[in-house]
Amino acid sequence: MLKRLIYRCLGVACMPLLITACKTPALVTKTENRSVPVSYNNSQDSTNTGKVKWRDFFTDPNLVALIDTAIRNNQELNITAQEIQIASNEIRARQGEYRPFVGLRGGAGVDKVGRYTLLGAAQANAEMKPGKEIPDPLPNYYAGLYANWEVDIWHKLRNAKKAAINRYLSSNEGRNFTITNIIAEIATSYYELLALDNQLAIVRQNIDIQNNALRIVRQQKEATRVTELAVRRFEAQVLNTQNLQYNILQRIVETENRINFLVGRYPQPVVRNSQNFNTLVPTTIQAGIPSQLLANRPDIRQAEQDLAAAKLDVKVAKARFYPSLGISAGIGYQAFNPAYILKTPESLLFSLAGDIAGPLINKNAIIATYYSANARQIQAVYNYERTILNAYIEVANQLSKISNLEKSYDVKSREVEALTQSINISNNLFNSARAEYSEVLFTQRDALESRFDLVETKMQQMTAMVNIYRALGGGWQ
């Protein structure tokens, strides 16, 4: 009979709350677009270089050693590892919210009741046996267990936990994306370092060639075949070339330290072999199909997890409009004398209560939270779509760049060969007084620039290979 009465009272109390809770504000929603073009260049080959592990993609042992050290020591990766731990702790916190909270409580106190109060008058009129009078003032000792539990009727707490799980997965994907970028940065800087070494070698070779030409011009001046102007022009050319090496040396130091920073160590020489740089052949890239980006790219998967969490946040915010059911309970002992505190059942006490509460008037804060959660969800949709679009464009750009750089390198190689031959020709013509010294200078300058450009093109080829690997989602495996 009592149980039926409690259920009836709760039902009557819930009716107005349920009626008001059903009136949630309308939202403008947006659904994400997951479609991508069917191919990059009308090819349906699903073989994808992005699935290759980085240890198999990079074959230079010095570069592999640098990447391996960076994955262990890089500070940014260590920071993201702690972010993952924070996200994991958030799951644990959310998981505990929809389970009962149980605690232990104990205490002691003393009360002095006024004689002319209701409780004081009742104590004065109470008939007590001798030796059993109520003490005045009245001590109070208690110890027991208590519990509180919010019944998750609308899955508000469960959805909050699921959102925390999605953000944990997002932080993992964020770390994978960081690994991909760090590997790409180290590889790009490493190939730039090899290119700078080769450019420095070219400069020093040209210094030797130009010093030799300067000696010949001085001899010709002594023989009155050329003027002092020719000697000075050749000297200026030598000094200009010598000056180039200092700029390259500075760039080498900065590039080495960029690698050292990524590896997580203080400045030191970077071990490398630059001798065979011009013979390096970029790894053949197979781009697969665009839909594979959704699974391969960590940043896309991160945006997807953030979107899933944002959708759950909207559900959590919506559940705040509905009434919440709470249950509280307690059991323990209480007495005014420590000698009586464990007497059962005289000192035993327990309680069980349930309450329902829901918003009725002035729901502005709840409405604002609801609208903000929806706005963040729409932001997550746009971010997800933007990430997919950016990934596709990155791959398309790098595929085009690889093709054009391959053609450019072939043309530049022929240009270098022609200009290298022209140096000997111009020197022979100058020695036989059939060419002006300016032609020799211009030929040497053009040859130097073309060799620089050839090395630069090779570096761009290797960088494009690294970038397409990163764009396809490679590196984190």
Automatic annotation (TrEMBL):
Q: Which residues cross the membrane?
A: none
Q: Where does the source fall among the domains of life?
A: Bacteria
- Cross-referenced PANTHER family: OUTER MEMBRANE CATION EFFLUX PROTEIN, OUTER MEMBRANE PROTEIN-RELATED
Q: Is Cell wall biogenesis/degradation a UniProt keyword of this protein?
A: no
Q: Which UniProt keywords apply?
A: Lipoprotein, Membrane, Palmitate, Signal, Transmembrane, Transmembrane beta strand
Taxonomic lineage from the root = Bacteria, Pseudomonadati, Bacteroidota, Cytophagia, Cytophagales
Coiled coil (residue ranges): none
**What's the protein name?**
TolC family protein
Family, per entry:
Belongs to the outer membrane factor (OMF) (TC 1.B.17) family.
Q: Does the keyword Transcription regulation apply?
A: no
